[in-house]
Design brief:
The complex is a heterodimer. By secondary structure, chain A is mainly α. Chain A has helices at residues 41-52, 56-77, 81-97, 104-119, 128-144, 153-172, 177-184; strands at 10-13, 18-21, 30-32. The longest helix of chain A has 22 residues, at 56-77. Chain A is extended and about 60 Å long. Chain B has a single domain (6-178), classed as Rossmann fold, CATH 3.40.50.2300. The chains are: A mainly alpha, B alpha/beta.
Amino acid sequence: MAKNSAKDIEVEAFATHQIITQPNPLRKVLRRVEEKDMDDPVGRAEQALASLSGEFKDWMTIEVQRLSAAWTAVEKDGFTKILRDELFHAAHDIKGDAATFGFPSAAGIAESLCRVIEHAPDLEKVPAELFTHHINAILAIVHENTRLDRISVSAELSRRLRKIADDYLAHVNRDRPEHLEVILAPSIAPVE
Amino acid sequence: MFRIDFNKLRFLVCDDNPHMRRILRTLLHSFGAREVYEAEDGATALEMYSHYVPDIVITDWAMPIFDGLELAQMIRQPESKGNPYAPIIMLTGHSEKRRVTVARDAGVTEFLAKPISAKGLYQRILNVVANPRPFIKTKTYFGPDRRRNTNSAYMGPERRVGEKHEVLQQPSLIDKARSSI
């Protein structure tokens, strides 16, 4: 269903480009219905997601164990490319998943950690405490706190760590305007 | 109003994180999809793309072997034997504006920043099903039309040469990424 045959595809050629149009190959899956006949696929999906929530704590525990192991490896062997990438990906996954799993503050701290890894000009010169404070905070939030922690101490911890990390990044990138621009740009992530 | 018959759609989900794949599978099945294929890296996804010919690809950005950006670039090969036109929804923890631009330039159709929500995902799928954009081929780009604004008076260096006014009334990718909730 996904692909139209070549004869359906129209190509308009211009000096610098071509515009290619084709009949919508997915049109057959669209059905016009009365409002009263609309079901609620989003509501259904939200319910299904809620039914998974009993597993979220375990999933988060696995994610933070990975982060912790990645940092332990960096402490042992330094920021090799492989270890740097593993630490970044572990933090990046928590940044993306933790809010869904009910740990929005952990997501914020993981984002701050990702920014340090991505924008510090020399990771070996970053004070180790900046990493350990971020990682320990995520571990503590997941191990000690309950989910839905947005109004708790962990939210304040997240804000302060982000401030410290941002101040550090602004300082070490003061002569790198292209990094400063990215660091200071607002996030496009959906707001909770 | 329109309803999507999800049971007629074939999805390919590509994410190296098993938890996120489980969430995506749960959401898509709840929408009504039956055919959801999963890959945990870009290379496997490309193989599955050729084999299963999905209608819609949902991919993470950061993945092993090759990432979601490279996957999009490999799918968007105009001379390939496969289907280079399939909608690609990039679902990623990257949340910087420059990333949206890079994804757009790789041929990504829609961008969805994590954390994922049922509503955000549904809206992206509805958009690629109901409002497909024409494809543009230049020397350096092949993919869905990147211009969603209606500024036909634009005279900057990136203006296309030799065409009539173009009217594509859709919100920009960055605005949509911001308003996913």
